[in-house]
Amino acid sequence: MKRSLPKVKRLEVKDESKKRIPFIFLFFSGVAVLLVVFAAYTVFRSEPAREVTPLQAELKPQRNLEELVDKQVFKRAYIEANGGFNHLQNLTTLKMNGRLRLKDDDVDFDFFILKRRPDMMLMTYKFGAYDLTYGSKDGKFWMRQSYPEKPDKITDVSEEKQANLAPSINMFGPLLSAYLDQSDSIESIELADWEGHACLHIVMKSLDDGSTTELYVDGDSLQILVQIVGLASGETTMMTFSDYVHVNKVNIPFTSVLEKGGKEINRIFLDSVQFNVGASSSLFEN
Hints:
Elements: H1 21-34, E1 53-54, H2 65-68, H3 71-81, H4 85-89, E2 93-102, E3 107-116, E4 120-127, E5 130-137, E6 140-146, E7 153-156, H5 159-165, H6 174-180, E8 186-194, E9 197-205, E10 212-218, E11 224-230, E12 236-247, E13 250-260, E14 263-275
Antiparallel strand pairs: 1-12, 2-3, 2-14, 3-4, 4-5, 5-6, 6-7, 8-9, 9-10, 10-11, 11-12, 12-13, 13-14
């Protein structure tokens, strides 16, 4: 599945690529919600990208918001809105290409992501001629830096950076991950309003570190509109989602905006998504 987006200037080759690396971890803090889409049946069978249908062109089901405040009712409705439990359990691999646009520079960085369940991940970011790749397999993270005409530099990832990278391993967003992994961490659901959208305000608490995530979910489409995450530093990040597309029964936002401390940090655009591509486990090794 491919989408065309407005052209923007690309990064020229510069020696300061390393200075931009910290922005990547802000991106990681919200990217897990973008990765809510996988489909089809077997991990080693390649197939072309599926035809997609813009969600706004579909008839939205009539829902009783008051009923969805019940946790079990909401759980069933949310899983159903993303293809159903059996469909989600059979999702195996993901390949996606996109662009990360930094607010301060108005420059796009291309990125590539490949995932295979249960815990294999490969992410490559292109900073001009400089490529930065993170990989994970069997709970171990590694980093590869590639420069033109130089040997690749491969290192282990520090514990601090592993904490930033950990959410990117998840194959789904916070709600589907909680439901499918049987680690339901939803503390409360209540009626709310977000910029004129009748929605549900959902509070989740991490079973690992106790951090809190707030979600605002549209009451009709059950699409996540906003995700607010409290950081250990006391700051919060807010990611808003739009340009939803229905791909293989799963809701996917193709555009997201990340803010920290009330300041926009970056925008993320998905350009193409493919499902059940060939993904040998050796691809995730350094």
